[in-house]
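Weekly sync, protein design subgroup
Attendees: M.S., D.O., the rotation student, P.L. (late)

Item 1: inverse folding check
M.S. brought a backbone from last month's batch and wanted to see whether the design step gives back something sensible before we order anything. D.O. pointed out we never logged the input encoding, so this time it goes straight into the notes. Structure tokens as presented (264 positions):
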């Protein structure tokens, strides 16, 4: 192989995860090919769209027009407020009802088995089912049941799945972490309580786990809360600009890999 296999781990973070669109857009424009992606929660959603072959510029335009009311179906609370069928239908539409193994590049989607406290990694089967499980924020989305397992948000167990993308065979790993806690946030609803609590817990997880990626990208999205769907264009731009800063470092890693593998 004349170049290293580049893998990217896209982390969870609610609406802040739209920064992943900007990161991938910057890589596309710089001619940096991504060979595989592992994603948790919003990272899994963006990974699936990318894997289905959508141009990130087109997806950016779609994301900018995103309206929560069209994709969230509220239900009588038992295990969650949002049933999740609308968002699953939306994912099926965007991914052409494909299975994960039929996407353009290898994609791994991370979810959490809430009964067994285990990480579940999907590399085959329905894209929409796996992503729906991965985005099932506890207490907000009804958990997704797949093969008898009750699944919730992948970010609960692995917020930025670097180890997963390494296991997929990446030579160079890039992590995109959109973890942050909006301080002095306006806590007005039960949704605010749940989302802010999860943000705090997951930030603690990321602080206590060594992130052994070759390149770390942390878009400056801390001023946005995780349900800031009215700021999508700004969030995408933040991801794009931060990724552009890292491109020289990525190109240097590629050059160094080629030298070590006696490739030109």
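Designed sequence read out in the meeting:
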């Amino acid at each position: 192989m004349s170049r290293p296999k580049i893998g990217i781990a896209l982390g969870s973070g609610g609406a802040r995860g739209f920064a992943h669109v900007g990161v991938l857009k910057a890589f596309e424009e710089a001619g940096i090919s991504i060979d595989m992606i592992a994603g948790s929660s919003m990272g899994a959603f963006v990974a699936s769209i990318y894997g289905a072959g959508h141009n990130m510029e087109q997806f950016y335009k779609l994301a900018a027009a995103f309206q929560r009311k069209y994709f969230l179906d509220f239900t009588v609370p038992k295990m969650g407020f949002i049933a999740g069928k609308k968002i699953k239908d939306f994912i099926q539409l965007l991914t052409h009802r494909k299975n994960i193994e039929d996407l353009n590049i290898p994609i791994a989607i991370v979810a959490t088995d809430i009964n067994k406290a285990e990480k579940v990694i999907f590399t085959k089967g329905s894209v929409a089912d796996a992503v729906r499980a991965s985005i099932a924020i506890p207490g907000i989305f009804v958990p997704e049941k797949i093969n008898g397992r009750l699944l919730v948000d992948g970010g609960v167990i692995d917020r930025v799945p670097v180890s997963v993308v390494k296991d997929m065979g990446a030579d160079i790993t890039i992590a995109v972490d959109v973890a942050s806690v909006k301080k002095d946030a306006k806590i007005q609803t039960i949704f605010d309580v749940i989302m802010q609590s999860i943000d705090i817990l997951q930030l603690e997880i990321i602080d206590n786990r060594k992130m052994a990626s070759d390149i770390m990208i942390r878009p400056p999205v801390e001023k946005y809360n995780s349900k800031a769907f009215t700021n999508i264009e700004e969030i995408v731009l933040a991801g794009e600009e931060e990724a552009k800063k890292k491109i020289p470092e990525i190109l240097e890693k590629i050059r160094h890999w080629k030298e070590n593998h006696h490739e030109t």
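Discussion: The mean pLDDT is 86. Residues 6-256 form a domain with the Cytosolic phospholipase A2 catalytic domain fold (CATH 3.40.1090.10).
Action: P.L. to compare against the previous round before Friday.
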